[in-house]
Amino acid sequence: MNKYIYKRVKSFCDDNGLIEKNDSIVTGLSGGADSVFLFLYLIHIKKEYNLKLCFVHVNHGIRGSEAGNDQHFVEELCKRENVTYKVFYKDIPQMADELSMTEEEAGRVYRYECFDKMRKELGYNKIAVAHHQDDQAETVLFQLIRGSGFRGLGGMKAKNGCIIRPLLSVKKQEILDYLDESGQNYCIDSTNNDDEYARNQIRHHLIPYLQENLQKETVSHIAKTASYLQDVTEFIDIQTDAVWDRVIVCKESFPKEIRAGLSEMKKLHIVLQREIFMRMIEFMSGRRKDITARHIDSLMRLLNGQTGRKIDLPYDIIVAKYYDFVLMSHKDKWYHSSHSPQEIYEERISEGQEYNVTFTNNTSHTIRFHLEENDLITDIIKKNDCTKWFDYAKIKNMPKLRYPKEGDYMWLRTDGAKKKLSRVLIDSKVPADERKDILVLAEGSHILWIPELARCSAYYYIDENTKKVLCASIY
């Protein structure tokens, strides 16, 4: 192999820890120039690094006899070098139709499934793919055009989990020149000339225009900038990790949701705010694909906008702003909350009984009611936040545990000043969609107690004339 290009690829691999002694590598081999070059490089260093190699070819079932010829070429190449290989076949057009993907996207998904399948079956530790410097530049431009954030503009990583890209320092033309000089044949995919694909338009028109009219080294400059942005991304990840638990509350159980506290969120730099939002979406959907800078911008406007606003995001995600937090949840959460069975729950309490209840934050509690003589209750016990005390003589009918109804109210002071329960909940900054699900203890329309808020009606306060007390304890 040409010493210059060998040293450059080797140096890149060493700098990024891509290929090490005794590695076992599954490698994609389409038969095209890039994968054939990678094939030759790995064969060249196989003995030096004591590598185990398996090459995987995927026939996409798209180009008829041309695809068959590519498969035959790969099989002969592998036999010539006496290396292990595996061929997979898939009707990619059918897969794309079934999964509502483009053929390009479906092909990529299936290829990586095959690579990982072989890696696991063989017990290998890495997957090598033949992306080169031109591919990196195309990726960055594609992400820029579609409105990606800084993470997308970092392009492809040299190492991403078990996937390695040894050729990111090599230009396409260098690969072609080497293969021509060495007399090594390769396959040409006719679909690479089809400008129907956005990447092909960037490859055939945009990059050549930039090289010819603005900067000859467009490709290498874009690739270098992508490398810098990857370093920036790594730094931002570290900073985000440091503040995540302070800002975020996650709920894994159904309905899944995630909250960002407004006060802590607003203390952060705008870059971290954006990254927090992106991670929240990833938590809800398990992916970042199809989330662009436009979506993050809408979340930033929500963060600084009016309480009560909602926005829709991909993957059926709804985001709403409340008094103290931003809530991200799925649309089915809103459906279920509007048909909550809690609306019809109502149970008259009995002295000495315990009741299992759930608060709006989905935490479970037990409430126990019992009677005590006032002179047996000390001032120290009365300060216990987990127990509330009501003058039993003022209760005409044993109250009920239920959920809010129209006309409910509380006494704010012992002089009889009242306030509607709906206004009490608003003033307590209970989110609008949770107000109907907040548990109350009520005698008729008079609310004695809101357990979740530790609020009691002043009418039922105990005083020096109280003889018997109804005690309500939360566990």
Explain what this protein looks like in three dimensions.
It is elongated, with a radius of gyration of 32 Å. α6 (133-145) packs across α10 and α12 (270-285) packs across α13 (293-303). Helix content is 42%, strand content 21%. The strands form five sheets. A six-stranded mixed beta sheet has the order 3-2-1-4-6-5, sandwiched between helices. Strands 7-8-11-10-9 form a five-stranded antiparallel beta sheet. A five-stranded antiparallel beta sheet has the order 12-16-19-20-21, with no helix packed on it. The protein has 475 residues and is of the alpha+beta class. It has helices at 3-16, 33-49, 65-81, 92-99, 103-122, 133-145, 150-153, 172-182, 198-213, 218-247, 262-265, 270-285, 293-303, 331-338, 379-382, 421-427; strands spanning 24-28, 52-59, 84-89, 126-128, 159-160, 163-164, 248-251, 257-261, 310-313, 317-321, 325-330, 346-348, 354-358, 364-373, 387-391, 400-402, 409-411, 418-420, 440-443, 446-450, 455-456, 468-474. β7 and β8 form a beta hairpin. The chain contains 16 helices and 22 strands. The longest helix is centred in the middle third of the chain and has 30 residues, at 218-247. Mean pLDDT is 89; it is low at 335-344. The termini are far apart.
In terms of topology, how is this protein built?
Blueprint: H1 3-16, E1 24-28, H2 33-49, E2 52-59, H3 65-81, E3 84-89, H4 92-99, H5 103-122, E4 126-128, H6 133-145, H7 150-153, E5 159-160, E6 163-164, H8 172-182, H9 198-213, H10 218-247, E7 248-251, E8 257-261, H11 262-265, H12 270-285, H13 293-303, E9 310-313, E10 317-321, E11 325-330, H14 331-338, E12 346-348, E13 354-358, E14 364-373, H15 379-382, E15 387-391, E16 400-402, E17 409-411, E18 418-420, H16 421-427, E19 440-443, E20 446-450, E21 455-456, E22 468-474
Parallel strand pairs: 1-2, 1-4, 2-3, 4-6
Antiparallel strand pairs: 5-6, 7-8, 8-11, 9-10, 10-11, 12-16, 13-14, 14-22, 15-22, 16-19, 17-18, 19-20, 20-21
